[in-house]
Fold each of these.
Amino acid sequence: MPALDVCFSPELLTLYDLRGKVAVVVDILRATSSMVTALAAGITHIIPVAELAECRAFAPQGYLTAAERDGVQAEGVDLGNSPFGYLDGKVSVKGRALAITTTNGTRAIHLSLSADSVVLGGFLNLEAVANFLRQQQKDVLVVCAGWKGQFNLEDTLYGGALAERLAADFDTASSDATLAALHLWQYAKDDLAGYLLQSAHVRRLNSLEVNKDMEFCLQLDEYNLVPIWQDGRIV
Ligand code: 3SL
């Protein structure tokens, strides 16, 4: 039976061998939730980049550009990191390609590229990713984007939610990290939003008045799609 493990921060990735595994990169608030939403809204593909200048340089090629630093939209790009940027109709997104850079999420994707496959997870596409992993039958590492190298609650909760969904098909009991994520999820799942009120990033985002983003990103199984890294882009 393949195993599911959880890496609590990209800084810990050097401790894991991703070869032969599927990496599920997760940044619930908000990068991977927004990328799932972007593809669901008709974005054709996504190029995650590290630097703002790199992101802006895609605009002349016809790309939409999205950038966030410290929770706020960066200067000189079309969109920030809110999933509603792809839904509210202010910017036309259908059929467009997207270049994006965020504080933690895009970095976590790049650090995971030695895996056999890299997919993006969120509560929004929880079951779609679970189904994909059941089909792959490979060991899985959930890569939590965290915040500037530190542990966060929301990405860990996702690791627990995924472990719960996959408990019949994967070994979810041999890693202390997976067990801890699972126990946290079981403790918090009945009132996820209420539980996360105490988390550092929710407090950070609350002060930026983006509460509706949080409610949106905590919805389960809104989208049946699995963003996957293919030839230098996410499709
Ligand atoms: O760090 C990231 O990648 C972002 O998701 C952070 S924020 O939610 O946009 O503040």
Note: The CA atoms of residues 129 and 226 lie 6 Å apart.
Amino acid sequence: WPAQATLISEINALKRERDAVILAHNYMTPEIFHGVGDYVGDSLGLAKEAARSDARVIVQAGVHFMAETSKILSPDKMVLIPDLRAGCSLAASITGADVRLIKQRHPGLPVVTYVNTTADVKAETDICCTSANAVQVVEWAAREWGVDRVILIPDEFLARNVAAQTTVGIIAWKGRCEVHERFTADDIAEMRAAYPGAEILAHPECPEDVLAASDFAGSTAAMTDYVMARKPRQVVLITECSMASNIKGDVPDVNFIGPCNMCPHMKRITLENIRDCLLKLQFEVTVPEDMIEKGRLAVQRMIDLPP
Ligand code: 13P
Ligand code: SF4
């Protein structure tokens, strides 16, 4: 694709000129993921990289809550997102005011919040988690606070899936990922019938009967590691469609089959708007200072937990 190749070299030259780094989530399209991403990974990996990077500008090739997380961790850097409309159904499901009400109803319990939330929610949070470390974080919070229940919000399915793996009681919210909530146990049964040898990997934002019927549950990075390490002959990734497209090339003997769903928010990010973002230094993501202070404590606590 000559047009794509031109855009990719334009972006890579602009990155050097602007002293910018591109943090690309695993759900970016392959031309972004492979062509211009300086760091690619899951939500946890991107947050860690935002904290570590010494570039002057961070371009978040992902959704808005990820850019806010980068700003919270790197308040002195300019954080840009190529399209401000790149949102998330989970982040939109809850506000800081909702969290204050939940805390009033459950005084003394720690608030564990999925990183897929806005900065005002993070500012009300004791510690953040991602799908890669949710069980570890919940158990840490219960121990630190000396309680047997924690608040884990806003993803209803992640909360149920964590509850199935720990003795800590979970108080949940009703948020859902619009991409993963659509997978059903029937999808899995159909795949099992059509491809009896296939290994089925699902994201923890899926309903619990989907995970129960799958062979493995993990974050996007955990799914990648699983495929790279085990190289199954046939594999089904119950998640966003770009996941399979991005890792296919590295494991040519693995046959990727089965259903996937597209995240319309992630798909708002394109090579064109990344180029414009670097060219015009748009669209800057800012977070009020008081929210940065409070939110950073919650995100940093998560990052500081041992691996
Ligand atoms: P992870 O990459 O952390 O698994 O999260 C998936 C997701 O839905 C991010 O929007
Ligand atoms: Fe949000 Fe789901 Fe899209 Fe991730 S995949 S950004 S959780 S809507």
Note: Residues 63, 88-90, 116, 177-179, 205, 240, 263, 265-266 surround iron/sulfur cluster (ligand 2) (CB under 6 Å).
